[in-house]
Specification:
This protein is of the alpha/beta class. 31% of the residues lie in helices and 16% in strands.
């Protein structure tokens, strides 16, 4: 990450577009006051195609990119002649063609913070809700039905943590607080952290999948970890086990989890991430399965987190407008 040198001040009024404000609430954040005086347009629904996306963004001086909800391809960027700055909500995005941005004179400003708290809390919430059938029985009760399932207690069961990074550590700490036995697998650094914390390390990836009653994925998505969970890995899981994915859908081979759930190993899944997002009109096979608990990528979505990430993005816009150095993203 590097800093752009100061430049002359820009006009005090700019056209700013915020695509894919799924929660329709960015303007309710306290930090929105930093850009409220500009001409700001927000869209909640994703664009249907490239043509509609161009129509939304073509007059923008600045686009606020929320995570990786929009792919800023060369084909898109070349059709946005007025665009001067993309302000990222969060750190660098894999959905931006940085080479094209450089050639077209478009700056990409990035955030600098990363908080593990919100995603760790959601992972724990999904574990508890799924193991105790909370969502399933709550919906049945709304329909006037009486409970008809037995759930699984957490105390005394094994919580597998695949990747003991910042998020994984918080989930492991919470699991241990609930009386779960923690079992870790991952890179050498994860195993070293596990030993320092007094957690058991699995003898192998296969052992992690075989022994876990609950397995939570906390691996960073890279070229090497893409598809790191295979159908064979899932077949090693217990028929009573739960797999939780609040990290990235691409960590699991395409179609592998759906096939494994249909075969009965594992017996349950709790999922917050999907290969194609957003999921609209109930258009995903997981949503018709009673043994799968789905949430719409809520891992980072809470007020404190939004204030942190959006404030950084808006501060970069202010710095750009005032001709001050900005934090440049990189591919």
């Amino acid at each position: 990450m590097n800093w752009r040198r100061p430049e002359p001040k820009r006009p005090s009024w700019m056209k700013i577009v915020i695509p894919d404000d799924y929660q329709d609430m960015v303007d309710q954040l306290e930090c929105f006051s930093l850009i409220r005086h500009h001409d700001v347009t927000r869209y909640r629904e994703p664009a249907r195609d490239l043509t509609e996306l161009v129509e939304r963004l073509c007059d923008a001086d600045v686009v606020v990119s929320i995570r990786e909800r929009v792919e800023f391809s060369r084909a898109l960027l070349e059709r946005l002649p007025k665009l001067k700055l993309i302000a990222l909500v969060g750190r660098n995005s894999k959905a931006i063609d940085f080479t094209a941005c450089t050639e077209l004179g478009i700056l990409v400003a990035t955030g600098n913070s990363s908080s593990p708290v919100a995603p760790a809390e959601l992972a724990l919430a999904l574990i508890m809700a799924s193991r105790r059938n909370v969502a399933l029985e709550a919906e049945r009760m709304k329909r006037g039905e009486w409970p008809c399932t037995l759930s699984h207690r957490l105390r005394g069961s094994t919580l597998g943590i695949f990747g003991l990074g910042a998020i994984g550590r918080l989930v492991a700490e919470s699991g241990r607080g609930l009386g779960m036995d923690i079992l870790v697998w991952g890179q050498k650094s994860s195993l070293e952290k596990a030993a320092a914390a007094g957690y058991a390390s699995a003898a192998s990836k296969q052992a992690l999948f075989e022994r876990s009653d609950v397995l939570s994925l906390h691996v960073r998505l890279t070229r090497d970890t893409h598809g790191i969970v295979s159908p064979t890995d899932l077949d090693h899981m217990k028929p009573t086990a739960l797999i939780v994915n609040t990290a990235r859908a691409e960590l699991i081979e395409p179609g592998a989890l759906l096939g494994a759930l249909r075969r009965g190993r594992p017996g349950y899944a709790a999922v917050d991430v999907y290969e194609q997002e957003p999921i609209t009109n109930g258009n995903h096979p997981f949503l018709s399965m009673s043994n799968v608990l789905c949430t719409p990528h809520l891992g980072w979505s809470e007020w404190t987190n939004f204030e942190l990430y959006f404030r950084e993005a808006f501060e970069q816009i202010v710095a750009y407008q005032q001709g001050l150095p900005i934090r440049l993203g990189k591919s």
